[in-house]
Amino acid sequence: MKKNSLIVLIIAILCSCQKKETKTIILSKASSNYVEWIEDDNTIILDAYTIKNTDSILALADGIILTGGEDINPLQYNDTINLAVCGDINYQRDTLERKLFDFALAYKIPLIGVCRGMQMMNVASGGTLYGDIPSEIGTTVIHRNNGEVMHEIAIVDTCSLIFPIRTDTFMVNSWHHQGLNDLSKNLRVIARSFDGLPEAVVMEKSAHPFMIAVQFHPERLGKENPIHQKMRDSFYKAMGE
Fold this sequence. Notes:
The protein is α/β, with parallel strands linked by helices. It has helices at 2-18, 32-38, 55-58, 91-107, 116-124, 133-136, 226-238; strands at 23-27, 43-47, 63-66, 111-114, 129-130, 149-155, 169-174, 179-180, 187-193, 198-203, 211-214. The chain has a single domain, classed as Rossmann fold (3-Layer(aba) Sandwich), CATH 3.40.50.
């Protein structure tokens, strides 16, 4: 009887050791595409935009994703000229995402930025934005046309956290009219579109162990897309899967 009890106890211990630890991921503003991209059986996903007390969830964060959305208020990067070309500005979101970024930076929480999220990463760490790409850079590459478009980007610096390194160019989806202008000193560009606009960046390791961002939308590229898969896998690895 004692022998059988010991066997049961050992099996229980082994099962508990094999069980994955639950992770908590905070989205700055959630949508079904982001949730479906990043969800996992052992993951709790929180939508920071719908939670009044942000401090109550920050301590739970294993990872943070700054998602796509509205133009960032140019006053966030000390610019008044771009106010004329911005769409509706969401002051609540600007404040929220600054707070999420600052927390991730201070406490070394893995962070992904998507589209607006990449722009916020640059702004929050000292960079600036183009207010309107077509009028400032031109239309060699179309980054939006009454909705989402596809265009090619080229890898300019190796980073296996985002791109499966099998080729130096990728087709990505695009839906934005603003982009990175002056680059934060802590960010490194790893991919550009063929008009020179940054399309993917990483935070220097000396500033943070895992901050990556893209100007396109990996959450809408589909589960079979290698970038969709690679960014998700890298994020989970950084969280200590």
